[in-house]
Amino acid sequence: MFQRKSDILAAYLFLGILALGLIFTDVAMRQHLDAPVLKQRREIVRVLALTDLALFTEARYTRHPSMADRNTPFQDHPLSLEHFPSGSILALPPHLNTTATQ
Amino acid sequence: MGAFEKQRNIVDFTLSSLGRRKGKIISLGTVYTFVIFLLASVLFFTQAIKREAALLLQEAPEMTVQRLEAGRQGSIPKHYGDSIAAIRGVQSVRPRLWGYYYDSLSEATFTIMVNDELNEKPGEIIIGSAVKVRSAAGAENRVVRINDTFPFKTYDGSALLLKVKGILPLTSELEAADLILVSEKDYRTLFAVNNDHATDLVLRVRNTKELTTIATKIVQLHPDTRPVSREEILRTYEAIFDWRGGLIIVTMAGVLFAFIILAWDKATGLSAEEKREIGVLKAIGWETADILLMKFWEGVSVSILAFILGVFLAYLHVFVGSALLFEPVLKGWSVLYPDFRLTPHVDAYQLATLFFLTVIPYTVVTIIPSWRSATIDPDSVMRT
Q1: DSSP 8-state secondary structure symbol assigned to residue B172
Q2: Complete DSSP assignment for B25-94
Q3: Which of residues 15-74 of A touch B (CB under 8 A)?
């Protein structure tokens, strides 16, 4: 089928471009298919007045980072250290840099 | 011979030459693909989750007003809402009741929230699809089903049995996995909260441009409050995912550096066999430009192969396999972890960034040492 080695590279490049094309097609299709579901989810957020994602449920300040105080991770007991794994991969919400402890 | 045919001949020769160094190329290609796979996975995951968070939290309340008590968030008297509602531009003020409940049996922390629709039906709850409870029989946590009874221990020590009347859709796990919606009566019984207090107040405003003015007026009226605007919530999530993407890349830095060293080693030190090959080619009449072209095609074939395979595998990993490799990092000690499936968001800009960060540097480092070898005398190259 492939008489020359360059044909193999050309075929591979063609398949690769096809695969990337498939990715973009899948993205477009899934965004289209997920649109009604997303609408329903946005409605849940609106009706329940949710402010945060349920990404980390292990600690209060990681479950609702936008509602937390700067001191929340340290208030378990005096000299308490922040010790939850997700605490180390959460950044301080930007608004707490300026309005904390108001 | 046309330019196209010449390029084809060079590509043919390059691929044959690569075929003679199969082991080396396969191992390099595997590491290269893995590095691209990891980078692309981080890129796809952070972009998709950022987009999803932004789309969902667009519906979050325009402003949330908390009350601080000795520097911590405390409950807010409901009458604060009356004075806040009188501020020009505020459309509505609604008290929100929510809190955390640690279930010692399942060792999970749930978010308990009052839903107005349940106020007429005390004793009933609606739960997020990840809510689990320790089964009576043994150690296994099991997912709660409709009509199951969910036992709570109230803050005065008594038991409160609530019946599951609904489960939030599975698709809403990212925002509601650990939620338990209850009636106001059950909430106040569970947490022994004063009838005049709420957890915070949520505001709808007519014009979002007035949010800063409204926030200033609220703080002037009630200096013990802290307004959090929707923009701040959105910025929080933007920062979280930027930080996390950066953090994963930092932890992957070791892999990246190992790859850079490998590529650099390969690039700076051509093997004796490769040098001899270049010498022979020059001796039979190949020009320096032809040898550089050969090395260019060598770099391109390996890079493109690794790039396409790495990107494709990363796409499958993040959007079909729910970012399986990142799950242990994201889960932490959470007992309830949302099993969410992200809507893909990949654009040409992301792929171009990845391409310029990986393929171009590799291709360049393979050409430079060949140029050095290709410009020296073939006789001396063949003799070494």
Answers
A1: G
A2: HHHHHHHHHHHHHHHHHHHHHHHHHHHHHHHHHTTS-SEEEEEEETTEEE-EETTHHHHHHTSTTEEEEE
A3: 16, 19-20, 23-24, 26-27, 30-31, 34, 37-38, 40-46, 48-60, 62-69, 71-72
Alpha-helical runs (H) found in chain A: 5-48, 60-63, 94-99
Closest CA–CA distance from residue A51 to any residue of chain B (Å): 5
SS3 state of residue B171:
helix
CA B355-B357-B361 angle, 5° bins? 100
* Helices vs. strands in chain B: H and E counts, helices first: 13, 15
Kindly report whether the global pTM for this prediction surpasses the value 0.90.
no
Residue B60: closest CA among A99, A4, A65: A65
- Give CA–CA dist B242/B5, Å, rounded: 48
pLDDT in tens, B73-106: 899 999 999 999 999 999 999 999 999 998 887 7
Q: Which two tokens stand for residue B157?
A: 């020590």
ipTM, two decimals, is 0.85
Q: What's the length of chain A?
A: 102
**Residue in chain A lying closest to B331 (CA):** A56
pLDDT digits (tens, 9 = 90+) for A49-63: 999 998 888 888 888
Mutate which of B9, B16, B233 to disrupt the A interface (most A C-beta within 10 Å)? B233
Looking only at the bridges linking them, the beta strands covering B63-69 and B72-74 are antiparallel
